[in-house]
Amino acid sequence: MDSTRRITALEAVPEESTFVFRVVDTDDDANEVEEAILVRQDGRLECWLNYCQHFTHIKLDKGTGAAMRNGEIICENHGAYFEADSGVCTFGPCEGAYLTALEVAVDDGDVYLTDEGYDLLGPGPIPTDEVDRASSSNVEF
Ligand code: FES
């Protein structure tokens, strides 16, 4: 595996929450930084872009791990539930919509970004106060 595409150790991905990291879409001429999340569910590892499908600027993991219940990731803004293993929204204002998947692989205890459509920037959320304030707002019903 390409060491420049190592996201983190598998052990660093929590069982009942998410691990956030930063990527750039290689097809995006603007080179906008986006966030993605890793989630472990029943021995499987999945990776999704870190944005709700109700309002797509709203983050599921706001920097300290997304809330989860019974294998579903919860958007804390308006209560949408997304299956951690399929990404489908099972309840809430965007029911039936899917999170955007990224390809990852585990090799020798480490997680790698194998999705050719994204470059890896590193672990952790985008460090901007402006984005964080927007994603914690509940005023957009
Ligand atoms: S922004 Fe996620 S449910 Fe409304």
What do these coordinates show?
It is built from 1 helix and 11 strands. The termini are far apart. The strands form 3 sheets. The chain has a 4-stranded antiparallel beta sheet, with no helix packed on it. A 4-stranded antiparallel beta sheet has the order 5-6-7-8, with no helix packed on it. 5% of the residues lie in helices and 37% in strands. It is mostly beta strands and 141 residues long. It has a domain at 3-68 and 99-121: Rieske [2Fe-2S] iron-sulphur domain (Rieske Iron-sulfur Protein, 3-layer Sandwich). The protein binds FE2/S2 (inorganic) cluster.
SSE layout and pairing:
Blueprint: E1 6-9, E2 19-25, E3 33-41, E4 44-49, E5 67-69, E6 72-74, E7 81-83, E8 89-91, E9 104-107, E10 110-113, E11 118-123, H1 129-135
Antiparallel strand pairs: 1-10, 2-3, 2-11, 3-4, 5-6, 6-7, 7-8, 9-10
Strand fraction: 35-45%
Radius of gyration over all CA atoms, rounded: 14 Å
Q: CATH topology of the domain at 3-68 and 99-121, what is it called?
A: Rieske Iron-sulfur Protein
Secondary-structure element series: EEEEEEEEEEEH
Organism: Halostagnicola larsenii XH-48
Protein name: (2Fe-2S)-binding protein
InterPro entries: Rieske_2Fe-2S, Rieske_2Fe-2S_sf
GO molecular function, one term: 2 iron, 2 sulfur cluster binding
In short, what is this structure?
The chain is mainly beta and 141 residues long. The protein is 5% helix and 37% strand. A hairpin with a 5-residue loop joins strand 7 and strand 8.
